[in-house]
Amino acid sequence: MDEVTQLLKIIQSKLGLFQLAILLGNVQLACNVLEYSNNHFYRLKD
What per-residue confidence (pLDDT) applies to 41? Predict the structure, then answer.
């Protein structure tokens, strides 16, 4: 896999977390669904 493809996969997974949090209206629930910690979400957000 080339570097651009890897970067796109990382971006898509992060974007998916944000989109799910918006859809559910709940960050903690989105993190639980995707098996991320809340700290992971807030580190991505910054």
Answer: 79
